[in-house]
Amino acid sequence: MALAISSPMFSSELAEIEPTWMTADTKSPLEHVKDVVNQLKEMHHYAKNNTERLTAQWLMFDGELKNLNQADRIEALMTRQGELHDALVEDIAALEVLVVELSPKEEDATVPTQS
What we know:
Layout: E1 3-6, E2 14-17, H1 29-60, H2 62-67, H3 71-102, H4 106-109
Antiparallel strand pairs: 1-2
């Protein structure tokens, strides 16, 4: 959808401007990596909370689960959840290094002024 803009500078001429929205096509690689890091941090937070809750439940009902032959099943889930948690920590750290590498350096960001 184009927007028609009238300005006294153009007298009766109309300029058409296409709106640009921040989409996957207009984001920089740095912005994409930052988005991924934020999503992984959120997943990490929930993985940690889920592991803690499952561990608490498992400890409360360990005897009952063993009697029902379900302890191994829950233990396997806890192990996989812990592995996910560890992998998220590693991947977040690696991507945060990439964010630093992709970020403009201070000397690139500042333009020297002439006196």
